[in-house]
Amino acid sequence: MLDDMVEEIAEENVVQVVTDNASNYVKAGSMLEATRPYLYWTPYAAHCIDLMLEDIGKIPRVRNTLKGAMFCNGYIYNHVGIVNMMRRFTNQRNLHRPAITRFATSFITLSQMHKQKNNLRKMITSPEWNNSKWSKDAAGKRLTSTFLQERFWRNIVFALKLTGPLVKVLRMVDGDKKPAMGYIYESMDRAKETIAASFLHKEEHYKKAFEYIDARWDCQLHRPLHAAGFFLNPELYYKNPENAMCAEVMNGLYATIQRLVPDLSTQDKIGEQLDLYQNAQGLFGNPMAIRQRDKRAPADWWSAYGASAPELHKFAIRLLGHLSLIILLGGHLHQVSSTRKASETSNCRRASRGFSLIDEEIEEDIGVSEDDGEEEVLGIDVDDDDADEF
Question: Region Disordered: what ranges (predicted)?
Fold first, then answer.
């Protein structure tokens, strides 16, 4: 089926075939790469990152926190009277923010609960709660006990510090604002750096989570395409050329050139023209090109300013803009071409598998509201005293 779809579109028009991570798709993707030497098979990035969240959810401290939070959430939403009471204390805000994937939903719900920490505690210590029938049954007492435990709230922050940066990456790869190809490599590195910083680089707190992240990254997401996309993203390359010149990135770049460009003379021309890009010569050094490195989508930037390096220009647009992309999710095939709008591409992905991870209504990133007076759980502003609690 995959091979027939490639044949219909023409292999030279296909950059990659994307599937979810089911074992049968992995085998089919490997077979496709073997028979089609000038395209890539890659697993769907959002699915891979969601599996990282699932793995982190197996860490005992995180698993127990999720279990306690889901009990509280379930008990509240199973009683209309408690839901109405809660909304009076939370200014009509809900705890449950559904996303289509199970594990994203769980951690988003944790975040919402933490944002309402003070209001939830006010509720279960109020006369309205104490005089209600729910405060007297066993489950209601367990809810009260859980919300009054400082350890419960510390564990929520612990879980969100491990997962918040990954949810941000999920939001990026499944969203419409940025094409993921040029950003996912750097975004995963930054997510790990953020997690480590949130614990003041005390490795014992995040070592197991990093093992899970690295295992999924190395065997599923770490593809030459992503390294090449990072190198050819002007916003990221010119900001820190040293990072883009490391052996891992350069190996990925050259591997991608060799696989996507069958003609050897064209490969050599691209290699020569890389110097122009790296040294910002020709149109790459035009003042407008410099100003717009971080203002235009990478493919659009290359369309506007890549003419000084015609072969590299064509290759970069094909890679970053995806001349043609085949998506196989949930057993359904979809062709997505560069002529379709980003929103249409995203909607195709959502409809085919339901991997939309965060409601468009959620305006805030996963974190603690300023009103709570606590550290930002993504680890951007970590208070030393709070970090020591972990």
Answer: 364-390
